[in-house]
């Protein structure tokens, strides 16, 4: 009887042109969705130099993984390089024998060597990436609004200034607004022209049964949506970016003004103030609350010294990384919004795994609840609320786009 191929019979390497020709099949099979050739080409263009690996069984590609070279905004507005891990798939014929793990070992060796302080990904499943030092760092909150019963509170401003558009005719305006938005928002990612062209191509295949893309444009924000259904109409918001509070409310009023639509579904960030604009905030139901961006801190001192903080705290933290050696013990001194973080031999006061530090980094997940779950441990619990206050972000984190 023959047995399945083992890992040591497989070859891991950077892809050749012939390998790339095969990866579209592996990618399509892995995700159950075959990308348009132009979409796939744009994704390939984002890959960093030497940022892809494949695993081959003879001449068949059975595993692939890559990382994009992203510019990423952290709390306080600094923009840092982030390795955006993506295009990860293993053939169903070769799963659960360590192919992903082998590709991740190599990919993260390259990411560390290239000096990225952060690596990020969006996960197909929630149970896979903690072991690799990634923690959920932003959350997506889906609001499903029964538009027929949504009434604006008398305190809600009505600034106007919004108009309906065909998005493809306003690509430059949309890109300029996004660029302002991503620079001021932790979680923002620079979006290259190829990604805009791909989004605005608005191919039938990408509509998932909805209409063509429609836009509402304000000078400081935009919303892109489709209408789904025939008898009962539902609006599915594809993207909502507001640089100012006036733009946020003007766009919300535009969306909720769609008289013949029953529900509006909007995937947004945890602290979106939209429900507060309504007399009955229950009308804006949270129908999903799920991890969005996952972060792995590749270089603890560099990452912690790049962001700004909301409170002072001085402590020694021990960070464990079972996967790739980014952990260690650090003296962390946060004063006047800035951190000084240096390796130390002093006894630790706070300890956590690297994935937990990734979850704290953008200020979405908080120290005290993580401590209640024993994911953060302290010799003196008094330090926990101070650490929590320090790690908050004044601007709520919101992932720029999924990748
Ligand atoms: C997810 C996927 C890449 C895993 O590949 P794989 O080669 O089977 O994974 P490995 O055998 O290397 O497993 C690595 C580790 O992850 C764990 N793991 C793998 N898939 C898992 C899953 N779906 N849920 C939870 N844990 C998982 C394994 O148990 C193993 O743990 P260990 O090394 O600590 O013992 C593969 O199933 C796949 O291609 N899925 C469809 C596409 C997809 O989801 N891609 C990821 C996009 S974010």
Question: Could you characterize what this model shows?
Answer:
The protein is of the alpha+beta class. The protein folds into three domains: 7-116, Aminopeptidase, CATH 3.40.630.30; 140-291, Gcn5-related N-acetyltransferase (GNAT) (Aminopeptidase); 294-391, Nonspecific Lipid-transfer Protein, Chain A (2-Layer Sandwich), CATH 3.30.1050.10. 26% of the residues lie in helices and 33% in strands. Strands 1-2-3-4-5-14-6 form a seven-stranded mixed beta sheet, sandwiched between helices. The chain has a seven-stranded mixed beta sheet with strand order 8-9-10-11-12-7-13, sandwiched between helices. The protein has a five-stranded mixed beta sheet with strand order 17-16-15-18-19. Strand 2 and strand 3 (60-73) form a beta hairpin. The two termini are 42 Å apart. The structure holds coenzyme A (COA).
Give the arrangement of secondary structure elements.
Layout: E1 11-13, H1 17-31, H2 37-46, E2 47-57, E3 60-73, E4 79-90, H3 99-113, E5 118-122, E6 135-136, E7 139-146, E8 163-165, H4 171-184, H5 193-201, E9 214-218, E10 221-228, E11 233-242, H6 245-256, E12 261-269, E13 284-291, E14 293-297, H7 300-306, E15 313-320, E16 328-335, E17 338-343, E18 350-353, H8 354-360, H9 367-372, E19 376-378, H10 383-391
Parallel strand pairs: 4-5, 11-12, 15-18
Antiparallel strand pairs: 1-2, 2-3, 3-4, 5-14, 6-14, 7-12, 7-13, 8-9, 9-10, 10-11, 15-16, 16-17, 18-19
The protein binds coenzyme A.
């Amino acid at each position: 009887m023959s047995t399945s191929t083992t890992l040591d019979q497989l070859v891991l390497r950077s892809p050749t042109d012939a390998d790339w020709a095969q990866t579209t099949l592996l990618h399509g099979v892995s995700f159950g969705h075959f990308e348009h050739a132009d979409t796939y080409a744009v994704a390939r263009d984002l890959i960093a130099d030497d940022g892809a690996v494949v695993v081959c069984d003879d001449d068949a590609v059975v595993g692939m993984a890559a990382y994009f070279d992203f510019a990423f905004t952290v709390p306080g507005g600094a923009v840092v390089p982030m390795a955006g891990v993506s295009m990860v798939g293993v053939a169903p014929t070769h799963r659960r024998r360590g192919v992903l793990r082998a590709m991740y070992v190599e990919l993260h060796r390259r990411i560390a060597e290239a000096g990225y302080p952060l690596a990020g990904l969006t996960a197909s499943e929630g149970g896979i990436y903690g072991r690799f030092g990634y923690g959920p760092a932003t959350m997506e909150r889906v609001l499903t609004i029964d538009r027929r019963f949504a009434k604006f509170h008398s305190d809600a401003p009505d600034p106007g200034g919004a108009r309906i558009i065909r998005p493809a005719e306003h690509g430059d305006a949309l890109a300029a607004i996004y660029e302002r938005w991503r620079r001021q928002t932790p979680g923002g990612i620079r979006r290259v022209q190829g990604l805009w062209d791909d989004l605005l191509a608005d191919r039938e295949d990408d509509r998932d049964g909805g209409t063509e893309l429609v836009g509402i444009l304000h000078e400081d924000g935009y919303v892109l949506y489709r209408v789904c259904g025939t008898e009962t109409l539902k609006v599915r918001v594809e993207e909502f970016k507001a640089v100012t509070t006036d733009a946020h409310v003007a766009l919300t009023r535009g969306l909720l003004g769609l008289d013949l639509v029953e529900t509006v579904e909007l995937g947004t960030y945890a602290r979106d103030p939209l429900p507060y604009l309504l007399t009955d905030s229950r009308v804006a139901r949270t129908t999903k609350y799920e991890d969005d961006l996952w972060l792995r801190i590749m270089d603890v001192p560099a990452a912690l010294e790049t962001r700004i903080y909301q409170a002072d705290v001085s402590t020694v933290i021990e960070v464990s990384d079972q996967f790739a050696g980014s952990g260690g013990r650090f003296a962390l001194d946060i004063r006047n919004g800035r951190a000084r973080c240096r390796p130390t031999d002093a006894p630790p006061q706070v300890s956590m795994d690297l994935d937990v530090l990734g979850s704290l980094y953008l200020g979405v997940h908080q120290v005290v609840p993580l401590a209640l779950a024993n994911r953060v441990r302290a010799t003196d619990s008094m330090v926990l609320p101070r650490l929590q206050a320090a790690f908050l972000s004044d601007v709520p984190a919101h992932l720029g786009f999924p990748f």
